[in-house]
Amino acid sequence: GCVKNVEKALGQIDGVNKATVSLNPPQAIMEVNQTISNKIMQEALSEAGGYSIAGEEDKNSKKSGGGCCG
Fold first, then answer.
1. Within 13 A of 35's CA, how many CA atoms are on the CB side?
2. What span, in angstroms and rounded, lies between the C-alpha atoms of 44 and 32?
3. I need a labelling partner for 67 at 20 to 30 A (CA). Which of 1, 2, 8, 37 fits?
4. Is the pLDDT of residue 8 over 50?
5. How far, in Å, CA of 45 to CA of 18, rounded?
6. Which pLDDT belongs to residue 1?
7. DSSP per residue, 20-49
8. What CA–CA distance (Å, rounded) separates 64 from 1?
9. What is the mean pLDDT of the chain?
10. CA atoms of 13 and 35, how far apart (whole Å)
11. What is the sign of the dihedral through the CA atoms of 58, 52, 28 and 17?
12. What Rg value do the Cα atoms of the chain yield, rounded?
């Protein structure tokens, strides 16, 4: 599902040791061993299914998250 897709996408980023995602509240908590830019995280999330970092998406866009998470 959505949670596993996002965890997998974030977990594949260089420097991420672990990613834990929840829907309520909608958040991702990551254990990292280096600084990771929002751009790199956003690219991974977009490739995983059109997910986005809150506040990073286009202000005119109605989409929030991937297809199954609303």
1. 1
2. 15
3. 37
4. yes
5. 15
6. 86
7. EEEETTEEEEEEESS---HHHHHHHHHHHH
8. 16
9. 83
10. 11
11. negative
12. 12
CA distance 16 to 12: 7
CA distances from 36 to 14, 31, 50, 67, 69 (A): 8, 11, 19, 25, 24
The residue written with tokens 């989409």 in the block is 63
Q: What is the pLDDT of residue 53?
A: 87
CA distance linking residue 68 with residue 59, whole number of Å = 21
Q: pTM here?
A: 0.74
In the DSSP assignment, the letter for residue 67 is: T
